[in-house]
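re: that chain from earlier
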Amino acid sequence: MTTLSFTRTVAVPPHDAFDAWVDPGRLATWWWPHLSDTTYAVDAREGGTLAIESPTAGIGVRGEFLAVEPASLLRFTWNWVNDGEVAATTGGDVVEVRFAAVDNGTEVTVEHTSDEHVTGGGAEQGWNDVLDRYAAIS
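^ sequence. v structure.
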């Protein structure tokens, strides 16, 4: 298992930074806005689900929330979707998102733990891509 870690500071308070992850309309503004057919479904409660999918691109992610602490923490499983099918993986990927108030907004740290990560693989590029857009939220 390896963990990739990413940190961004957003110029909004923690409750707004958190809501941008759990409100499907706000999530759509920064996750994959360039993939116009992407659907976003978020049931942000322990045991609730997350599903982000772009049929045209043939990609997506599905997961289950393991912990939800408003304005503080999200922890969820991570399963890639390829052409509508959940990809076979060998272990349980988990993503943890922590929100901490700082002087100029909120520091957001994302940690993605997986036994599927490879150096220089797409996970780093993908997370940097979405989080760079996320950092511009207001």
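The mean pLDDT is 92.
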